[in-house]
Amino acid sequence: MNSKWVIVFDWDGTLIDSLPYKIQNASLLFAQRFGVEEERVRNAYRLHSGIPRRQLFDAICANLSLPPLTDDTFSQLSKKFSDVNRHVISKLKVPDDTINTLTALKEKQYSLFISTAAAQEEVSYLARKLGVSFYFTEVLGSKDGFTKGPVHIAYLREKYGYPDEKFIFVGDEPNDVLLGKQAGILTAVRLGSHDEKTLKSAAPDFIIHTLFELIDILN
Hints:
This protein has 219 residues and is an alpha/beta fold. It has helices spanning 19-34, 38-48, 53-63, 71-89, 96-107, 120-129, 150-160, 174-183, 196-201, 213-218; strands spanning 6-9, 111-119, 138-142, 167-171, 186-190, 206-208. The protein folds into 2 domains: 6-17 and 94-218, HAD superfamily/HAD-like (Rossmann fold, 3-Layer(aba) Sandwich); 19-89. The protein has a 6-stranded parallel β-sheet with strand order 3-2-1-4-5-6, with helices on both faces.
């Protein structure tokens, strides 16, 4: 059984500073499809960000008093969203903090994973394109029945036999803390997407200013 740390990272806003671009992409997509104001979409996205995409899009619709999405409509929106995300985010630079942290953690032979609400094809493509996929044992995107948080963690427990006390989920939003707690594992959140007061209200185990602070925490 692995006695080293198992570190499960969120993607957007945690490893890559992509969240503002995704919020903008979603606002344009919903505005074009439903004729709603972009700012209202952005506000709804920020409110619910961090949960699996189907839940996120349904929550945005509810906030905007739009009818529930059919499966076909969701699939169309999700595909367009992933297409524009791949185009925009593939041009971003991976932060030095991310590279330095992943390199240091890998040198310690910790097991690293990504668990994200983004579609599997989208995050797999971007991790390869941005040159970070080799750091991770697996990159887990979300799809029906296989989503970020407890479901991904249960999959990792069963496949690799990792003990619960060695898991830590690292994100940037209150919803990341909630998903980690639902999975029964430690949580750490990085300041940036939200202020410290907002993150403290979610009661994570650790609040960090940079990812590199994980090195000392895990030591």
